[in-house]
Amino acid sequence: MKLIAGLIDLLFPPRLACPLCGSPQEDIGVCPGCLNKIAGYRREPVCFRCGRYFQRPPEAPVMDEAVLCRDCAVEGRFFQQARAAGPYQEELRDAVQRLKYTGRKGLAAHLSGLMFQAVENNPYYIMAQVIAPVPLSPERLRQRGFNQSELLAFGLAEKMKIPLLPVLRKIRETPPQTGLDRAGREANLAGAFRIGDPGAVRGKTVLVVDDVVTTGSTLNNVSETLVRGGAATVICIAAAAGRTFPAAVPAGAGSKK
Ligand SMILES: [Zn+2]
Ligand SMILES: [Zn+2]
Questions:
Q1: pLDDT per residue as tens digits for the range 156-199
Q2: Which ligand is nearest to the CA of 17?
């Protein structure tokens, strides 16, 4: 039977599909249409700090990218920059959800490739020395069987040629952040993360990897944990980032480090 199946494959090769949009194609990997669309996202204005995409163009003239969103302008962030492959919508949202909820782990390789493309020429990211994925709580990890951020981090570590260090621990499950205001999100996450091995990050530029930047609160909390644990600088990257509104405040404000 195996021989016959092999013969059939040879005569009628299985059609390959784009991992993002599913359209049939000749090659393995993201199709030219999706690559084009994602390249277009890279030209959209984003918050200089958290990398979220603006709902509408900033009111202030965009000088380079030095415009912050309201959250980054008001709260400040413990990371220098966060960036994503594109906005959390359409194909990217579907891909992240299929990776997380249907266990399509192969998608992590494609998504990490797009994440790498988003930052390969960004000076902040060239400085990264170690890669640390945002952890799941032990309870959630048991449920899901894998940590999607660790799979993304694995792909990035390979492409960036820096070590993957899963040093962060999430010591308790936190309810979803959606619907919480800023104070609520902070209270929700307070003390949720720990560093397993502080020696591994001390004095280092750490690149934190997450699946989605929604409010930036999780990345901020993880970054605070790392900075307080001795990391020199924290930068972040995600497969996708949400949309938000610009604040008319110059960049330079909004950094807690
Ligand atoms: Zn496609
Ligand atoms: Zn921001």
A1: 999 999 999 999 999 988 888 777 888 888 888 888 999 998 89
A2: 1
Cβ partners under 8 Å of residue 233, min gap 6: 80, 127, 205, 206, 257
**Both tokens assigned to 229:** 């644990």
Contact partners, residue 11, CB within 8 Å, separation at least 6: none
Residue 35 lies in a domain: no
Give the number of C-alpha atoms closer than 13 A to the C-alpha of residue 48, restricted to the C-beta side: 19
Question: Residue 49 CA: which ligand is closest?
Answer: 2
Closest ligand to C-alpha of residue 33 is 1
C-alpha of residue 191 to centroid of ligand 1, in Å: 40
**Domain limits at 178?**
46-254
What are the tens digits of pLDDT across the range 193-251? Answer: 999 988 999 999 999 999 999 999 999 999 999 999 999 999 999 999 999 988 864 55
How far is the centre of ligand 2, averaged over its atoms, from the C-alpha of 227 (Å)? 19
Q: Please provide the average confidence, as pLDDT, over all residues in the chain.
A: 89
54 in any annotated domain: yes
Residue 122 CA, ligand 1 centroid: distance in Å: 25
Ligand 2 mean position, distance from CA 46 (Å): 8
Q: What is the pTM of this model?
A: 0.88
- The CATH number of whichever domain residue 153 belongs to comes to 3.40.50.2020
